[in-house]
Design a protein that fits this description.
With 34 residues, the chain is mostly helical. The chain is 85% helix and 0% strand. The radius of gyration is 15 Å and the shape is rod-shaped.
Length: 34
Amino acid sequence: VSFLIPAFIPVLYQSFLHYFCTIRYSLVELSVTI
């Protein structure tokens, strides 16, 4: 199982980045609307 962990790290990191950017973008849009 331990050899699978390094393969999952980039996937988790990429999905976290995507999630973070989506939230930030929606917050910016919200502040622009207000």
